[in-house]
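Worked problem 6 (solution included).
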Amino acid sequence: GLRVLRQGGDAIDCGASGATLRFLLPLAMALGRTGLHLTGTPRLLERPLSAPYPVARENAGYRITEPLTPGRYALRGDETSQTVSGLLMALPLLAEPSELVLTTPLVSRAYVDMTLDALRLFGYTVGADGVQAYRIPGGQTGRAPEQALCVPTDQSAAAFFGAMRTLGGDISLADFRDDGAQGDRVFGAYMERLCREKCRLSVADCPDLAPIL
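Solution. The predicted structure is:
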């Protein structure tokens, strides 16, 4: 999808990935890619975008009808954090400042925190008033990090193997790096509790763990 945005093309197939759709759609609009068609599986297209984007809904996806414009964006915070992250990555590219306000409590806060950390790492500025409002200066270009990046372990993917180990498999995770930021890093503790006791576990900040647990 990023290759299509850089090199041109008229369609991006997001498959079943909600993150791909919700990240690339506002980015494409910020880059002025009107006419671009983002498609996906029927199940993906049933899920809400959770933002008032200028797009035309078509049977097989969404077509961008207008570019993203600076301004005030108000959306729910309890539907998906991916929409919040997508706008936080796209709005700095616009010429004028914008504001993002969440009208309901934010879920999956760890994912938004990771987005803000990544933006800061690449030289973008976002002002946060708690976790419900964000001020985004316009006209930003960013910069490359001053040192090489060491990508941490994907805790969601690691959780599948952690489940196998919890159930008695002889499994070790090599080069496991915990950056301390991912909500899904609780998978080990959660699995131990499930095996030890009857318990109630919250996946509000780690929804990707729900099917694994």
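Discussion: The two ends are 31 Å apart (CA to CA).
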